Amino acid sequence: MEDEYKNTIENMEKSDLHVHINGAVPTQTLIELATNMDLKIPSGFDIKRDLQILEPVESLREYFKPWTLFKMLPIGYECLSIMVESTFKNLALDNVKYVEFRNSPFYISVLNNISLEEALLWLIELIKKYSSIYKIEGRLILSLTRHELVRNQMRDLLKAIKNVNYEGYIVGVDMSGDEEVPVPRSFSSFFRKAKEELGLGITIHAGETGNLENIEWAIKECNADRIGHGNAAANSPKVLNLIKENDVCLEVCLISNLRTGYCKGIEDHSLHTFLKWDIPFVLYTDNPAVHGVSLSKEYLFFISNFNRVDIINQMLGRNRRYSFS
């Protein structure tokens, strides 16, 4: 069935609203950058093997191994420029016309000894530049990381966004990272302020590997518009109804979910339940270079396993409805 639709899907215009910049930089580009900059790679990390997750792992902690190197880059504006351009180039090859990149700007600030505002300006300038060159409308979602979260970060990020986002390239905020790390529920005020005071969209990684409470918190207390993954919702009619009643869109990343070990096989994936409940969802890549996939491959994988060509035909419209721009 994949062969039948391959050309059609590769040629159709696409949008990706859930793609992490670091996880989208081609592996060979990262290797070349690390080599040219003579980065001191931590002991036990094999740069030729550990930058990709091509088989299922046992936990999210194991899945995050490539981030050992990701957190060491970029060193300098030109390095970031190479990283961002390489992601745009690959997206253009897959006929992606709109993308909402996710990135945590704190790494850029610390690694380069620059202010958070300057780090955001680097990202904005490069996304603006390569959007024009590659004819892709690129936007930015800023991520907080659960296991590195402190209250001052949230305050500083809101201030920095307010000061630099005069062209509107920053369209949303996110929280990602290991869901086993507890986050004080009072931190929901950051998301409410981002939405109410700055007009940003809210998307939160929640229920990726089983935590129902994070989904409820994201919707009820953070006013989330979208949920990253949301797999755990399939285990609770109450949460499924909450998602439908609030028209919250789930960002489904099938291949990523298989690689993280969330489900043993595609037959166990929560999307089967989401389809039965008519839950709003869209398909995305998450970390395409890490997985060795493209959005076209994600669509073909969906068709092959769910036989719903009608939904793929609706995908561009779904993306327009739930995008933050």
Distance between the termini: 34 Å
Main beta-sheet annotation = 8 strands, parallel
Please list the strands of the largest sheet in the order they lie side by side.
1-2-3-4-5-6-7-8
How much is the radius of gyration in Å?
A: 19 Å
Strand content: 5-15%
Mean pLDDT: 96
Unreliable residue runs: none
Count of alpha and pi helical runs: 17
Structural class: alpha/beta
String of helices and strands: HEHHHHHEHHEHEHEHEHEHHEHHH
Report helical residue fraction. Answer: 40-55%
Shape: globular
Work out the number of β strands: 8
Give short descriptive properties of this protein.
single chain, 325 residues, alpha/beta, 8-stranded parallel beta sheet, 8 strands
Could you give a short description of this structure?
The protein is an alpha/beta fold.
Structure, explained:
This protein is an alpha/beta fold. It contains 17 helices and eight strands. An eight-stranded parallel β-sheet has the order 1-2-3-4-5-6-7-8, sandwiched between helices. Helix 1 runs antiparallel to helix 16 and helix 8 (116-134) packs across helix 9 (151-164). The radius of gyration is 19 Å and the shape is globular. The two termini are 34 Å apart. The model has no long low-confidence stretch (mean pLDDT 96).
